[in-house]
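Weekly structure sync - notes
Attendees: PM, LS, DV (DV joined late)
Agenda: review two folding runs queued last week.

Item 1: First target. Sequence and structure tokens pasted below for the record.
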Amino acid sequence: MTTAPTPQTFGELDHPPRLLMGPGPINVHPRVLRAMSVQLLGQFDPEFTGYMNETMALYRQVFQTQNRWTFLIDGTSRAAIEAALVSVLAPGDDVVIVNAGRFGLLLSEIAQRCDARVTTVEGEWGTVVDPQAVEDAVKRVRPRLVACVHGDTSTTMAQPIEAIGEICQRHDALLYVDATATIGGMSVPVDAWRADLVTGGLQKCLGGPSGSGPITISDRAADHIFGRRHVEAGIATAGAVGGNGRRIASNYFDLAMIMDYWSDKRLNHHTEAASMLYAARECARVVLEEGLEARFARHAQAGAAVVAGVEAMGLSVYGDKAHKMTNVTAVLAPAGVDYDRVKARMRTEFEIEIGAAFGPLAGKVWRIGAMGVNARKHAVLQTLAALEAVLRWEGFEAPAGAGVDAAAKVFS
């Protein structure tokens, strides 16, 4: 007789609370955690579709837009990025991509997977791209779309967008902006930018969990996307209207079908991720109750305190400080310390997470984020005090208390 193996169930989740001071994710706001625990409703329950409509109205304010088509993509921020690109770009379309970091490269990769013809306008990591170089490329290529990243956490640079929006308007190109790392912490004025598609994520300045991607779409971008509309065979009815353009290559990320789902038609596409909708709704409520300008100022102050603190310790901040994101700071690792061990000891000795780096910056900079609930005096001071201690243990002569003192002056 064979004895059945004992099921392996592992332990209940019970890790120690950790202060997440990297480039994201960050600690989730307590109100958002509570919202996620609310019981589910059916996706066509009038109360639930009411929550969907409220979420659309809330994110219009967060995005600073009048766009009707402002809603959520079920998936991480990358899901929203892919939905935007695959729904606009058909095979053979030209796209100009502004690239000065890891996430500009990501836009290029996704566009290539759409079989678009990609032209990149390159900038050095740690800088932003000159808008004139963008206009030169747009004049030459005449693209369907220009795509760029607002705040690239790989380099901590914030690309100025408004001039690019004006370029796109002059040359009849659509503009897509990835604002994953800045929405809710830096101003993302979609209408003032004249941007056509802008996407975000919850896990950074909005103070939520990864898994929902807010998106907003202009009328002219929506017209183009609806020109590629396809009604799924299993739900099509007599007289269903499709578009004349090439069908969008992805079913899940088909914005035309997702917009029909979020419209008054409620044409079924997927089962909305209810708990993530609750989270996204509460993230927006928290942001708007604080006030956009107050929130941007708080993030700017916390970021300035991080910069003051690390420089007072004798460390250097990476990149062009004139175009630095307010909410993430890249700190050059000093010679003579073990890069990985510093990061590990921040976690094991102090339960604080800071970020490593990618590509050409791997092993050279640590990235410290001050976002959402962590863009606060206590979080910044705790992080700087811990970093000073770890660096001293690793042999770096950081002036005792200088980082905390300098940061505290910024807050005072």
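Item 2: Second target, run right after the first with the same settings.
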Amino acid sequence: MVQRFFPEPSGSYFLFGPRGTGKSTWVAGHYPDALRVDLLAPQADRAFSARPERLRDLVAAQPAASTIVIDEVQRVPAILDVVHEQIEARREDLLRFVLTGSSARKLKRAGVNLLAGRAVERSLHPFMAAELGDGFRLDHALDVGLVPLIWNAATPAATRDAYLSLYIREEVQAEGMVRDLGSFARFTESVSFCHAGVLSIATVARECEVKRKTVEGYIEILEDLLLAFRLPVFSRRAKRQLTVHPKFYWFDAGVFRAARPSGPLDRPEEIAGAALEGLVAQHLRAWIAYTAEPHSLFFWRTKSGTEVDFVVYGEHGIWAFEVKNARNIHSRDIKGLAAFSEDYPMAKTVLLYRGTETMIVGGVRCIPVERYLRDLRPGTALP
């Protein structure tokens, strides 16, 4: 069992995360005596969909239960009304609900208010390198990703390749999220070329031969299913003209590799570079999610094309990161970080690369990326 860095909240909470990130495993390990409702089970899904009030009867039948776990709560949004009622009715008993979900889309569409603040929202991410310890191998992570379901599989590459199609079939098709599954499949392939790059909705729409509005809806589906995210531009007290378009990332490097087609016209180093940047992005997102102090993740890009891959902004500082899939560093590699430092001299600048030595180049700390990811731990300052 891999010890996760996810910090257990006090009180009731939602635990969101893509399929296979280990939500059910983590909950089962931490609450072995909890009363559990698994809405992925067809019988439970049918029973609670027909009559959500069954939860009230179930809780009443086991008054000693202090923790109630409901897996995949988005399948029956109406059950949250009963959860809300039970939290209010048994406030003195310190009754706690742990509500897991792989999508918030159905909850949003149903107009559910996520218990009006009576349950905090938390997220579980793929493995971090430091969680795996000596089991972490950078090349393997870049190939199959760090989703626990895939990482622990007997055949990780095959499981990785099946993950996205299975997800689309079980979530998108089953829930009727799109009318034309073929167009959505073409979209997932096309948008994979935008991974770690500035997102051009018009270009994706043209390649998929669908309307721009359709692509915008498809991207929202990926985000609601927690499969992808958009990274906004850091523009606080901007001193230069900046781009306005966000960058696009799949949530895991392996899932990106599964979505991204490759052939004789594709340069392997280009795909590997995008995978490495995505791997760093998912680690920074996990660090932010598991760290108590609030931080936000951005990128920085001027109209002239000068760019910094990631900017972490928090109460205690600004960190700027550039990621290079190269074993040697050239002066041009720190150009973006140098420009960012001119505008934000208080920022800590870091270049992550595939070499083996830590050094200072032009005032920028250059650190081997594998070493950096192994040392990245929530609750401690960014290395």
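Discussion on item 2: The chain has two domains: 13-123, 129-375.
Action: LS to circulate a short write-up before next sync.
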